[in-house]
Write a structure and sequence with these properties.
Elements (H helix, E strand, L loop, with lengths): L1 H10 L22 E11 L10 E4 L5 E3 L5 E7 L4 E5 L6 E4 L5 E6 L9 E4 L2 E4 L7 E5 L11 H4 L7 E5 L8 E5 L12 E4 L2 E2 L19 E7 L2 H4 L10 E6 L8 E13 L8 H10 L13 H5 L3 E13 L3 E13 L6 E15 L4 E16 L2 H10 L22 H7 E21 L2 E20 L10 E24 L2 E24 L20 H4 L2 E20 L3 E12 L8 E12 L11 E15 L10 E5 L17 E6 L8 E14 L4 E13 L1 E6 L9 E6 L3 E16 L4 E17 L6 E5 L9 E5 L7 E4 L2 E4 L5 E3 L14 E5 L4 E11 L2 E11 L2 E4 H6 L2 H5 L27 E3 L2 E12 L13 E9 L3 E3 L22 E2 L6 E11 L1
Parallel strand pairs: 1-7, 13-16, 46-51
Antiparallel strand pairs: 1-4, 2-3, 2-5, 5-6, 8-9, 10-15, 11-12, 13-14, 15-16, 17-18, 17-52, 18-19, 19-20, 20-21, 21-22, 22-23, 23-24, 24-25, 25-26, 26-27, 27-28, 28-29, 29-32, 30-31, 32-33, 33-36, 34-35, 36-37, 37-44, 38-39, 40-43, 41-42, 44-45, 45-48, 46-47, 48-49, 48-50, 49-52
Length: about 1000
């Protein structure tokens, strides 16, 4: 049977038939007598707008029709007809009496709640009213607006418990995202992303955020699974939450052509307040320094930044007939960064189709996405470092208008001409999912998917005479391939008040990554860029240009199942189970087992609740275990290294060469197993005022155990000094409370109003660690390179700052620090837990109002309880540098009593409040009445809008932006809350045109 099925998939032919009306053949003796024709209109009761595509049927008969673009309809009704049945997606179905009537006007009421909304869960969908886990759905209409590079930005601040952080303002830069707090020390805390049923591996091919390939315009909805009762179906990858991304699909009965165009203008949101030339001249003298005055007046931050232009164009086609629906799109986004020579271009295409066969018994869904991204980056850290430190009296340009060249000062404009970093990524994702209805209620589904990407990264330093540079070209080629095949059965059946749904399946996923790199030095100064002719390089010695590479292969084999049960639509039960086997883990622990249970009680459906103020009231509770396998590959296996040195070999003869020697780099550990996350969730969903006011409250606890870390071996005679292991007793606990609230008001007089928000209270704590401290967060800057900023300490958060406590100055103006151990000496032993980089409160709120064709929407988000370590200020803004004619901010002279010779080591002096409130985006739009304009025959929708993004942020932090997390990882241990020469954030104004035909 299966062979025949697959043969049909490969060889079968299908016909695309236009939708047409068919006459109904009535058996003799059952002729229908039509009494009259009824006409009418279908409109939204709140806005008065016509509803196109509403279904109108005759009660008790088979006649049906649909409303046109103006909401009008005409239907023939039999003699004995008493009423019409009118239905429309998202609205309450109405029974309309027609006795003695030839015309009716129907005002449709929206559903009182979103309980009938279909939400995506693992390997299927559910009605919102039946969901027992902690999930949240965001539809495209609710997404954040503005310049969007990756899907994470669409939901920033939109969901309780989900924290999205952009490490910098760079276009296409990495975005951090955690669901209900981080749980791993060395493992990734990023959720699993699933795009149209294809789980991604979170790897970044060539750099940047791994989800940059997705065009936000193609996304229909994003569903976030937060707790284990919802994520356990993904087992080993569910510990950090699961984010399900669904792209747009076509709809039968209507063909639509949509076009959107946008242009945005971005400028630096907040420049650092370094001294102007005139103020610099005063302050250098005031601190006793010798002024190096070259007579200029240069704002170096202004010189390296620009008003950046972003262009965004999207074209989509969708529609279909009864058996075939399709969606196709083409997108282009050309984005300039606010730093000069920084550009990111993305070209994307998508085709999704659904074809039905055999009276809908066989349904084939296919999704295909392609993307090309090109990212050109200047040497960001060096440019910013020069711009904030350079003497402002040095002119930026020489007499000929060219960037000035100095021996004792690095002009970032010269650097822009000489340095480049260009990455081009091509990525194809796609899957085909045929499903076959075997018998009533039993469906078999196959899901075959592939995610293939290649990248080329060229890092070029062009040759130059002044400053002298030989020139160098490095080329990195990276290949990623992710292949998935899944088979699963779903069985649904009802028996009286009992409703069952069962799922059982098998999944196999294989990941392959490969990288190669080459380099060459010493190029002649010619008009030819080294990128276009590497053969011009003159130095190709193995010492400086040894080729390199790597290859990794991992496999994941899984068995999974789920059972849903509902009694009388009131009492709900969900059971999930998954067994995962991974090549990342030891021979003794290949498989992990991940169960979950959850239950719900729809209290509002009880008879004794009828007439209560609740339109919806549901209690939920769940428990489960999930895993985390986001660790480096092959750490369970021994690693050897062959070298030609005295450290790993010895000469065979007194004067002979060293032969190759092999030494252990890492010991094998076949007992390594998954990190596990034990999660409990209790929640309540509610609705009042006929569903106008809705919300939910969740209390949760997530305990991560079996922590994976790399440690030094205790036995001094071991052949290697490090090994990976599970720390059995150590735990990371995240406890919190989430609340969402939404209010919708429709006046019926063309006025709609919406306001809502969410808040998350979160506590993260490390317990039972056998280590006094695990340090991370490497500091940068002169004299700081051996210092660390973060420390993992028992009883504290993972994002804790572990620092010496600065207490002021002594009589000589030198910094003093608290001697916590009382030994009379200030050392690393005196460091304290000085606060956390992880917010203890996250919140957002939004409001929108629409009147006739106008609408206004604003989104705010913020965090509190967190701190930031300003490594940029620590390394740059102190008196000694100012006295040497290096620019600073007023922070350097904040304390008059400080000596000009005072050192600035890592300490709490540069630990700052990281709380903020941001106007994330605000949009004003107008929807034209195409019918009034006389163009409705050609354009069904025409909209103009303007969006402001990141227009202001309220914060005490005096760096570029408080939403920052520069990667300062040490030995793979995650760092948090460090600001080191981060890319400035931009504020933007975007103008958009949307039209549908």
């Amino acid at each position: 049977m299966m062979q025949s099925f697959f043969a049909l998939l490969v060889c079968g032919q299908c016909s695309i038939l236009p939708a047409s009306a068919h006459a109904r053949i009535t058996p003799p003796g059952n002729e229908v007598s039509f009494r009259q024709t009824v006409k009418g209109t279908i409109k939204d009761a709140a806005s008065g707008k016509p509803l196109s595509g509403a279904t109108i049927g005759v009660k008790g008969a088979s006649q049906t029709t649909s409303s046109d673009d103006n909401g009008a309809f005409t239907i023939n009704v039999p003699d004995n007809a008493t009423a019409l049945m009118v239905s429309y997606v998202g609205y309450v179905t109405q029974e309309v009496p027609i006795a003695g009537k030839t015309t009716v006007d129907v005002m449709m009421q929206t559903l009182s709640t979103d309980l009938n909304q279909v939400v995506v869960v693992g390997y299927g969908t559910q009605s919102r009213k039946d969901v027992t886990g902690a999930t949240k759905t965001l539809k495209s209409a609710e997404f954040n607006k503005g310049i969007i590079n990756a899907p994470q930005e669409l939901l920033q601040g939109k969901m309780a418990g989900v924290n999205v952080t952009s490490a910098s303002g760079e276009p296409g830069g990495m975005l951090g995202i955690t669901v209900r707090g981080p749980g791993g020390v060395r493992t990734s805390n990023t959720p699993l992303f699933v795009v149209d049923g294809l789980p991604l591996d979170n790897s970044s091919t060539g750099g940047g955020d791994p989800l940059n390939f997705l065009n936000p315009q193609d996304i229909e909805s994003i569903d976030v699974l937060k707790d284990a009762s919802a994520t356990a179906i993904y087992g080993a990858r569910g510990a950090n939450g699961v984010i399900l991304i669904t792209t747009r699909k076509g709809k039968a009965g209507a063909s639509t052509l949509g076009f959107s165009a946008g242009i945005g203008f971005s400028t630096i949101a907040r420049a650092l307040p370094v001294y102007s030339a005139s103020e610099f001249r005063k302050q250098v003298v005031n601190v006793g320094g010798i002024l190096d005055d070259q007579g200029g007046d240069t704002d170096w931050q202004k010189e390296i930044t620009r008003t950046a232009v972003t262009q965004n164009y999207n074209l989509n086609l969708s529609g279909g007939a009864d058996k075939l629906t399709y969606y196709a799109s083409f997108g282009m986004q050309k984005q300039q960064g606010i730093l000069k020579n920084n550009d990111m271009n993305r070209y994307s295409g998508r085709f999704n189709a659904t074809q039905k066969f055999w009276d809908d018994a066989l349904i084939i869904e296919a999704n295909l996405g392609v993307a090309n991204t090109k990212n050109e980056r200047p040497p960001i850290g060096g440019m910013i470092g020069d711009a904030i430190a350079n003497n402002p009296t040095y002119p930026a340009y020489d007499a000929n208008g060219n960037p000035a060249k100095y021996q004792n000062l690095s002009n970032p404009l010269v650097t822009l001409e000489l340095e480049d970093d260009i990455t081009t990524i091509n990525r194809v994702t796609g899957n085909i999912s045929p499903s076959l209805r075997i018998i009533k209620g039993l469906v078999y589904k196959l899901n075959f998917g592939i995610d293939n990407s290649t990248s080329t990264r060229d890092i070029v330093s062009r040759p130059n005479a002044v400053p002298l540079r030989d020139g160098r070209l490095e080329t990195w080629n990276t290949y990623n391939r992710n292949t998935l095949i899944e088979n699963y059965l779903t069985y649904n059946f009802d028996k009286g008040a009992h409703t069952f749904s069962a799922l059982a399946g098998y999944s196999y996923q294989k990941f392959f990554q490969q990288g190669r790199n080459t380099s060459i030095n010493k190029f002649p100064i010619t008009p030819i860029d080294p990128i276009y002719n590497p053969g011009l390089g003159q130095e190709l010695t193995l010492a400086a240009n040894r080729p390199g590479g790597f290859a990794l292969e991992n496999e994941l084999q899984s068995f999974f199942g789920r059972l849903n049960y509902a009694y009388d639509d009131r009492y709900l039960l969900t059971v999930n189970f998954r067994a995962d086997g991974s090549t990342k883990f030891g021979e003794n622990n290949k498989y992990g087992y991940f169960p979950s249970f959850s239950a719900g009680w729809r209290v509002s459906e009880e008879k004794w609740m009828k007439g209560s103020p609740f339109s919806n009231l549901k209690l939920r509770a769940g428990w489960g275990i999930t895993g985390n396998q986001e660790i480096p590959s092959k750490i369970t296996q021994a690693l050897y290294n062959t070298t030609l040195s005295a450290g790993s070999s010895y000469p065979l003869y007194p004067t002979g060469p060293y032969p190759g020697g092999t030494a252990f780099v890492r010991l094998a550990n076949p007992d390594i197993q998954w990190e596990t996350s034990n999660q409990t969730n209790v929640g309540i969903d509610f609705g009042f005022m006929g569903g106008a006011l809705t919300g939910s409250i969740d209390a949760f606890s997530k305990t991560t155990g079996n922590m994976l870390v790399k440690v030094n071996v205790a036995d001094p005679i071991q052949p290697s000094n490090e090994v990976w292991t599970n720390v059995k007793d150590a735990k990371v606990i995240n406890r919190g409370l989430e609340a969402d609230l939404e209010y919708n008001y429709k006046s019926g007089r063309n006025l709609n109003f919406n306001v809502g928000g969410n808040i998350t209270l979160l506590k993260n704590e490390l317990k039972n660690s056998p280590y006094s401290v695990i340090t991370t967060g490497s500091a940068s800057g002169s004299g700081l390179t051996s210092a660390t900023i973060n420390g993992y300490v028992n009883g504290e958060s993972l994002g804790t700052f572990y620092l010496r406590e600065w207490t002021g100055f002594d009589k000589d103006g030198l910094s003093t620090y608290r001697d916590t151990d009382g030994d009379g000496t200030i050392s690393d032993k005196d460091r304290i837990a000085a606060g956390t980089a992880l917010p203890t409160v996250m919140y957002s709120f939004h409001a929108s109002v629409a009147y006739k064709g106008f609408d206004l929407l604003a989104n705010f988000n913020g965090v509190g309880g967190n701190k930031i370590y300003d490594n940029t200020a620590n390394a740059n803004f102190y008196k000694l540098r100012l006295s040497k004619s290096v620019n600073t901010t007023p922070e350097a002279i904040k304390y008059a009593e400080e000596s000009v010779n005072n050192a600035a080591p890592v300490s709490t002096r540069y630990l700052k409040d990281g709380a903020y409130l941001r106007l994330n985006n605000v949009t004003l739009g107008y929807n034209f009445n195409t019918r009034a304009l006389g163009i409705s025959k050609y354009a069904s929708m025409l909209r103009l809008s303007v969006t402001g993004q990141n227009l202001f942020v309220i914060t005490k932090y005096n760096g570029y932006d408080p939403e920052v997390n520069t990667d300062r990882t040490v030995e793979g241990v995650n760092s948090y809350g460090v600001d080191w020469l981060s890319y400035p954030k931009a504020k933007s104004i975007i103008f958009n045109l949307n039209v549908s035909f």
